[in-house]
Amino acid sequence: MKNRKIMIAGMLICAITAGCGTALPHADGMGETERETKEAQLNSSDETEKIQSIAQAEEQTENSDVEDADDQLAVIARTRNQWVNDPDYADEMYQFAIADLDHDGRLELIVSNCGGTGIYTYSRFYRVEENGTLKELKTSFVEGDSQPDLIADELTVYRKETKETLQEYYIVYDDLRVSPAEHLYATDAMSVLEDEIKVETLATMSWLYVAGNSGDEGEAQIVCKDADGNPLTEEAYQQYAQTYFKKQGYTEDTLLLRWTDIGEFMEKTQEGAEAFLKKTYE
């Protein structure tokens, strides 16, 4: 009996001393160390869920389909730092216009700057993608070559539609001033491919002023050619695009463009820029 009492007393002492086992459990059945570990795991899990939730929301926003025209205009306004830069030269006019050039429901953005002694024009094209991003389109422009002057209130369009395809060509013009006495003109056809803007020259006209001798009045020498080098009269040059496409069964239409000065546009707030585009292109 005495030995039994001693054993019971020893067991009680072990139960209440740190050296004989773990600490007493809390009401939830966990020891202090286990509880701290569990709380840390829960906190970590909550933080992970928050991060995942934010990432999923951002991914859904980025990958969500942008179909509505107003939503596409908002993308253009939101990404303006992507498509606006400071031209080194030829910046007398620096403007942009928006249109659905290929009628696929996706808006195209045209950014052009024009100026300099040669009346040079440089243009870039973008398209609003379905995932809400803005993609720059390739062009057939060759660096160093003159580009068509796109800043115009309207463009003539020649269109032919079949069961399989819709073919459209926008007539654009280029005026390159070689010198005060010499100009080179071109009539071009611009088309929109899947990811590229293609420009093809239809006809050209060179204009050269030749001064007269001994005070005689000078005269302009004009030479017109088609893309194959065949000579054209000045009148035939002026009507070349219409003649060329109507012979092939194309119908004529007009695209109206609204050009906006980029400097003024960049002064607007984000909300102001979106509201301006929606009002302008409604």
Automatic annotation (TrEMBL):
Signal peptide bounds: 1-23
Keywords: Signal
Recorded coiled-coil stretches: none
Biased composition annotated in UniProt, kind: Polar residues: 40-55
Region (Disordered): 27-67
PROSITE patterns: PROKAR_LIPOPROTEIN
The UniProt record lists the keyword Magnesium: no
Name of the molecule in the record: Lipoprotein
Species whose genome carries this gene: Roseburia hominis (strain DSM 16839 / JCM 17582 / NCIMB 14029 / A2-183)
